[in-house]
Amino acid sequence: MISRNSNVTGSVFKHGRDGPENASRRSDFLALDVVGQWEREEITEQLIRPINQEYFQGPVESHYVLPYVFVHDTGNMSGLGCKDSWTRNTRQSTVQDSSNQDAKPTSEEQLRQVHVGGLKRHDAPITLVEYDPAWPTLYSREAQRIRAALGPRALQVEHIGSTSIPGLIAKPIIDILLVVADSSNEASYVPDLEKSGYVLRIREPEWHQHRLLKGPDTNINLHVFTAGSEEIQRVLLLRDWLRNDQDDRELYAETKRKLAGQKWKYVQHYADAKSKVVETIILHARAGNKAGSAKAPQASLNV
User: Fold this and answer.
1) What is the rounded CA–CA span in Å between residue 169 and residue 256?
2) Which pLDDT belongs to residue 186?
3) In this predicted model, what pLDDT tens digit does every residue of 136-192 receive, in sequence order?
4) In what helix (H) or strand (E) does residue 284 lie, and over which residues does it extend?
5) In angstroms, what is the C-alpha Rg of the chain?
6) Range(s) within the chain of domains with CATH label 3.30.460.10
């Protein structure tokens, strides 16, 4: 299931005054002068400036901001610096151990309210497997079946989630995004999907009018959203960034392995526990796009 907690707190890590010259990947840095003007790229203040204001106390002489590093719950960062070369370990060290999440998991009552046909307990660790080259084929078959059932009402169909990212470990469940005109209008698409063997399992009117259906013969999660929903952009941004960024892909994989070994009452609680690292990676992706990074995600294709 999808991670729903987007309330991430933290600060962009401050680089030493010697600047990005000593970094192993110079293109990963943006310089910020004392008045908050970007020296290399035009970045909206909404992206990073509020974070700086919260954690950097008083005037800060020319300091450098790493757009891909986001530090959680650090308090006042004014005395910290990061003069090490940019490595996977440096990035990993900026994210707190996700096994000690302080985000409140979705309550059992909330889960019962949104599940159609009853809530099933998991009470076990999460099974993760290595990337399977057959997953894109399984997705393509489902995409064809969905389009055949809905025709032009299927405005967009995308392979999302970990099975859509080559090289990433994943639960062996194909996550699919379906965009329709109005996901709250179930009568406009659910009956025709049911005729093709899909079954509605989750109804979340208070969370982007999200609906989830299971498939007829393949283990899938079909996520349905209304055209224009901000969640569509988020899941595609996350997918595209992880396809292109090895460091964050490895960070995500390590976090998943650590969490998956625990016993989870409900699978959603495992998804909730990944919220911090997911939102951190999304921040990296947004900053990377703004910076014009060579690794910035490519435009998503409607497949």
Assistant:
1) 8
2) 98
3) 999 999 999 999 999 999 999 999 999 999 999 999 999 999 999 999 999 999 999
4) helix 275-291
5) 21
6) 108-291
- Token output for 109: 């009552």
Domain 108-291 grouped into CATH 3.30.460.10: yes
d(CA 235, CA 159): 10
DSSP, residue by residue, 193-256: HHHTT-EEEEEETTSTTEEEEE-SSS-EEEEEEETT-HHHHHHHHHHHHHHH-HHHHHHHHHHH
Distance between CA atoms of residues 47 and 45, nearest Å: 5
Give the pTM. Answer: 0.69
Query: CA 159 to CA 141: how far, in whole Å?
Result: 11
Residue 269 CB neighbour total at 10 angstroms: 20
Q: Which amino acid is at 65?
A: V
Report d(CA 277, CA 270) in Å as an integer: 12
Amino acid identity of residue 264, one-letter, is W
Task: Report residue 23 as tokens.
Answer: 């970094």
Q: Which amino acid is at 39?
A: E
Phi and psi at residue 22, to the nearest 5°: -90, 0
The full length of the chain comes to 303
Instruction: Give ∠ CA 14-20-24 in degrees, rounded to 5.
Output: 110
